[in-house]
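#data-curation
PF: Archiving a pair of folding outputs for the training set. Convention for this channel: one message per protein, sequence first, structure tokens after, nothing in between. First:
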Amino acid sequence: MSSHLINSPNTRSVDQGRWRLDPARSCVEFHVRNFYGLQTVKGRFASYDGTLELGARPVVLLTIDAASLDTDNAKRDKHLRSADFFDVERHPHIRFTSSIATADGDSLKLRGQLDAAGKQIPLELDATVRIVDGELDLEAVTYADQRELGMTWSPLGMVRAPSKLIVRARLVREEGARR
């Protein structure tokens, strides 16, 4: 595998260096099966920041403001922010930090740690990275078992694991980053 994204027509001219997520053109979402798996609750986070460092060893960092979650249901959102789930008063951020990132063409395979609600779990995900107008377009999907993060509240087993996590990000070259 290559250590940088240069092997496909979509990513042939990607410059090494630091790329920053543009929140105005990105989204971070989650989907959780509810009601014994019959309904999917979808939510998103409104506040987050992230970087992708391309070099000999690619590094990804994504930080999310846990209190910014929104499922279009104020009562549910309040409960999700409580100690039963994200415990945003004590743990205001959710973070993913890659420990291993390998790139091959427009694919980026990441392994790292997800920190949420005061717990940490290993997480693996596959991302697709493309060049669009000199910027990077990244899409990643993975699954995380929220029970491993201590989010076990579920009356009569109504909330199903795992949760689907989706990141669609537009990344721009960080000012002063090397080319």
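PF: Second:
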Amino acid sequence: MTKDDILRLALELSIDDRLDLAQAIWDSASPPADFPLTPEQEKLLDARLAEADANPEGGLTWEEVVARIRNREC
């Protein structure tokens, strides 16, 4: 089975099943613990963490993100 075959079958799934599949694939592709970051990436992550710490109510919960995705028209 080719990647194109898998994609064709995946696109036949419901949006909920596609989101679950995408999450499973994403989880399986997590980088190893020793995945090196560039200095620029470290700086960006540090800035984003500082922003999140300074404004903890500024983001969305995972449930809110999923609900927004599921409620938009595709």
